[in-house]
Design brief:
The protein has helices at residues 17-29, 57-62, 81-93, and strands at 5-13, 47-50, 103-108, 117-125. The protein is of the alpha+beta class and 128 residues long. A hairpin with an 8-residue loop joins β3 (103-108) and β4 (117-125).
Length: 128
């Protein structure tokens, strides 16, 4: 078993972030371990936190890097995949509370199906 920390990021759909994460983790656990494709051990994640703060996106969406511009995306609003990926990267790099101590962050994505879709991200140990 490798204990190297690794970043995980995936999308999953479900009525809530917790439910979507648990369903994806259960399916992922049943996949065979591939020594050539690293995967995070999602069973080690103890908490899923829905991230509602969008303030970091304000300067990016406004096109004014390193300036204080209010975000045009309301807190908790659904995000496009590019904005969600960017925000997840910043939260991981900044060691945000949602990804500390075996937690996962969840960002609501813009609707594409009948159930909400979430982008999950964080750190875990490697399977295998």
């Amino acid at each position: 078993m490798h204990l190297d920390p690794m970043v995980f990021r995936f999308t999953a759909s479900g009525p809530s972030a917790d439910t979507a994460f648990k369903l994806h983790a259960a399916t992922d656990r049943d996949l065979p371990i591939d020594p050539f494709a690293r995967r995070a051990d999602l069973t080690k994640i103890g908490q899923v936190t829905v991230v509602r703060d969008r303030s970091a996106l304000g300067p990016v969406i406004g096109g004014y890097f390193n300036m204080s511009v209010p975000s045009s995306v309301p807190y908790g609003a659904a995000l496009g995949e590019d904005d969600a990926d960017w925000l997840a990267d910043r939260l991981i790099e900044d060691d945000a509370p949602c990804v500390r101590s075996g937690g996962a962050g969840a960002l609501l994505l813009e609707a594409t199906g009948p159930e909400p879709t979430w982008l999950f991200f964080g750190w875990s140990t490697q399977l295998g």
